[in-house]
Amino acid sequence: MARTDPPAPRWKSLSLPFQLPTWLAMLVGLLIAGPVLFALAKASTNWTGGEVKILQTVSFSLLYVFGMHFREPQQLMPRSTTTRIFIMFLWLYTIILTTAYNSNLTAFLTVVQAPSSMETVKELHGSGAEVSGLGGFFKGALASAVDPYLQALAERFKAYNELNVVWPNVQSGDSVYLHNRQFLEFVITTQFTRKGVSSMRIMKECFAPYNIAMALQRNSPLKRKFDKAIRWMLESGLIRRWFLESLRLSRKAKEQKDAPEDTSAGGEAEQSPSSGVIPLSIDHMQGAFFVIVFGNVFALLVFLVESCCRKGARKEEEEKEKKEEKELGWSSRMSKKKKKEKMMMTAAHA
Predict the structure, then answer these.
(1) Which residue segments constitute the domains of the chain, with CATH numbers given?
(2) How far is CA 246 from CA 189, 195, 202, 264, in A?
(3) pLDDT one-digit tens code per residue, 253-301
(4) What radius of gyration do the chain's Cα atoms show?
(5) Cα dist from 244 to 74, 183, 186, 239, whole Å
(6) Which of 69, 32, 76 is nearest to 53 (CA)?
(7) How many helices (H) and strands (E) does the chain have?
(8) In 73-195, alpha helices (H)
(9) Has this prediction a pTM greater than 0.70?
């Protein structure tokens, strides 16, 4: 038994419909489509003699392709056949991507994404967590195993005499607890489950599977009848059903003991989500709010950078104008001086 890791933040739901390689492939396609559109528009102008002039700029071509990825209607229609064919297949590509994204986004917004956790003995060995249990029985079982990872876990095994000392370590994630599955399911259901959400879980890999048998006297004539009855109960699922029913009753009894006045309200609260459609709250939509906040902050930073660049350019223009004025003033003074000298030379000659 190990701690259930907290779910992934809701704002990550916007990126979960696609895997990371898919996002990278879409980004590469977005960056390539803009220059390709620009190159086709430029080539069509040179070869066929006519294309929309604004498409012959890299900035507008990138903006045009970016809008197509967000299904933004583009009123500008290319003139050349080559560019139109490229735009047609680009529209088909973006429609498929956006439809797939929108279909998966609804599911990821309403369903909590569970993080990846250790489920095997090898992952448990690599985590470095303490292995705990009641008494030293499981330590001997781990040490006698053939698997080297189980033998290494025997060195980290720590025996306890009371369960109340073990649970805080397991809840903090510093330790895992070894016991049979039925007991662990009972403990999780009765002690670590609140409103249908469990803070503990059972790892998938079992290091020592075993069976439970009923002992009878040797050569007993009842053995075949008992075997037949037990097989019927196993195949029909009665044993599992009775066990789950006992877990439900135990959890209900514990809830009534802990909070008898809130039993009816709690039961209605647990059934309300499954009775109809779940409305999306701010917690579900926090990714969208993060996007708008990030966009506003980014736009503000770009505005500040543009203002600084504009001030620098304006300052350079002013300095250039002053320099030109000085040069003009110096040249005018020089021309006046030369004119005066010329007049003096003419007077002296006369």
Answers:
(1) 17-110 (1.10.287), 121-219+232-259 (no CATH)
(2) 10, 18, 19, 20
(3) 877 776 655 444 444 444 444 445 667 777 777 777 777 888 788 888 8
(4) 38
(5) 59, 12, 9, 9
(6) 76
(7) 12, 7
(8) 81-110, 121-127, 137-143, 148-155, 163-171, 181-191
(9) no
